[in-house]
Fold these 3 entries.
Entry 1:
Amino acid sequence: MYPVLFHLGPFTFYSFGLMAALALIVPAYFVWRLLRTRGVPGEFCYELIFAAGIGGFAGARIYWIVQHWSEASKDLFNFLVGGFGLTWYGGLIGGFIGVVAWTLIRKQKVGLVANAMGPAVALGYAIGRIGCQLSGDGDYGKPTHSFIGMAYPHGTVPTPPGVEVWPTPIFETLVMVGVFWVLYRMAKKPQPSWYVFGWFLVLSGIERFLIEFLRRNPAWLLGLTAPQALSILSVAIGVGIIVVQRHKPPVEVRLKEERPGSGTRQQRRSKTRAEAKA
């Protein structure tokens, strides 16, 4: 485990913090690649980093505090500003609100941005779980005697001596990289509004529902954990979006092609050949 990467004077640099930053920066590059040819200003893509980051971290922290109110209420300020207490679904909800709000303020198409954010959020989740693995923050699974079991003796939430657990952060990273690859290939083609994001809700919801059987979260309702209940809701919403939107026309209107002298590279080449023949 590498919870602490290095010290620089009075400052301590944590592996989880580094991965959290990369989980915002790296996906933003792919959002930029998806939106740059669709009439969306490049600077707006970078602004989404801050909107998603602020909303995501705020949502993740608030969701955790609500879940652990009896503990957090004893020192609320420290839990609000401290470097711990983050949840995936809280971050997803907060980041979603932040991105939608900023997209509306900047008068961009929300459905178009949502399609680009689907694969980006999947990749950000995969990178974030690398941070969980490096820091050993307790997001690992239940004890196991499997040959792939791991111990986290030096993690921020260490495992007991001699106990090995399911390395669920590794599983989630591998699965969500696959989800990112599927969604990114889908988003590169013209799709109906919100369609790719709907698939993100379905695939990520299935992943989280299944991985919870290996994790340590307590049962909440009908033998299911709270993340599993939210996963079912995520899949239901995603299926609803897919069913409603799948036959609608694509939202990816390439505005650059509407301006004189622009268009795709292939269109410019075809135009040049036609002019030469004439």
Note: Confidence is low (pLDDT under 50) at residues 255-264.
Entry 2:
Amino acid sequence: MQRFEKSVRMAGAVALATVVAVGAVGCGGGGEAESGDAGSAEMAEAPAAAPRVFFVAPRDQTDHATEIPLGFTFGTEGFEVSPVPGEVSSPRADMGHYHLGVNAECLPAGEIIPAADPWVHFGDGSDGMEMTLEAGEHRFSVQIGDDEHRTLEGLCETITIRMEDGI
């Protein structure tokens, strides 16, 4: 009989421990849930980063062979890239397209990007191209333009690369 009572007491203790553990997790007592919730609250309160445009490839201050076309790929954060619509009554907010300046610097905000050398327009919404270049140092600027090809504040990056024969 003592053995039976001892088993019942142990079963009761296990059941009580299970109820306490389940209750703690259900009420937010689990460590992972707390840290996940705190992280979500911090993320919701964190200000959004300023939009930016950048070169995915090539990287700044790198050397490349003249015998191989150089591939350019552009990227953005916090900004949407889209083809220019057929008819533009006014530029769409927070939307634009890439322009590549070849041996060119960033243009001031609010200026219309020329539709001629040294600028290449990507009004179709594409994010890159290949180009064959002669040996030497070259500067490239990727700049976002709105639907009217007008530059936007802070949305330009310039890199320098070197093209060399036989590397």
Note: The beta strands are 52-57, 62-65, 70-77, 80-81, 95-102, 119-121, 128-131, 136-145, 151-164.
Entry 3:
Amino acid sequence: MIHSYKHLEVNVRKFVSVLVMLLFVPSCFGQSRFMGAWERRVRMTSSRQPGWAVPVFTPSSGLVQLIRFDAIRQYTPTHTTTWNIDGGKGFNIIPWYRTEVDVNLPPFLFHNVKSTPDGPGDFSMLLKYRLLSANETKGNYNVSAALGGSAPTGSYKNGSTDGAVTPTLFVGKGIRSFDVQTAAGITLPTGHTAAAGRPIVWNTAFQGRVKRIFWPEVEINSTFFRGGTHDGKDQTFITPGFEVSKIKLTSNETSRLAVVFGAAEQIAVTHYHSYNHALLFTSRLVF
């Protein structure tokens, strides 16, 4: 009798073990299938556009999936400095074909002036859709459109008083190992427009590829102030820069895992400028 009970107990344990495996394994396979489908979608989307490096300041004209961290040091005409940690960057993902979603964490600003408190800036997101594209063998170009939005999460004067919506158009064209990428957008604040205005931002990057992973570049970063306290003023920087893109982290040819490093220096070339120059260091993890 005791032997029967022990035998029954063993069978129950086996049954429970098998049941747990049956419940757990499909979940693992489901997760594996989900991640596999995502990776295939990203590879397919990326294969249908040029493999240019993402410029240091100018946003990419195509779609990217990466984690980005920047650090920027600005030097103003009044001889003050501000460190912008994170640069308002974060996570860029490709959740659907021809679509990119950016979740940008608030930057943190450090000032060397005691009267200006340090603190976080604004949180922002962006939805980008690639309208047209062709890789290097079929035309070598990108055309995308995006709609960005920000929330006034900044402390003191480290952020805006109101949220904003920013529609942007991106265009890129390559010729052999050289490419030009440009992005133009307008910021539309949700309130206090008389003070904030509707600035137009236009960035253009001229890039060359040397020895597969080296990307020297020159950018033109411009802001045209329309309305607000700086109405009619224009601000332009010439920005030489350099990137190493991409250093693969695995020997697997199908793996996208890689790192990117770069730096650039903005130099003011217009009479009006909110800062004289800015040095930016950037790092990205491509996945």
Note: Confidence is low (pLDDT under 50) at residues 2-10.
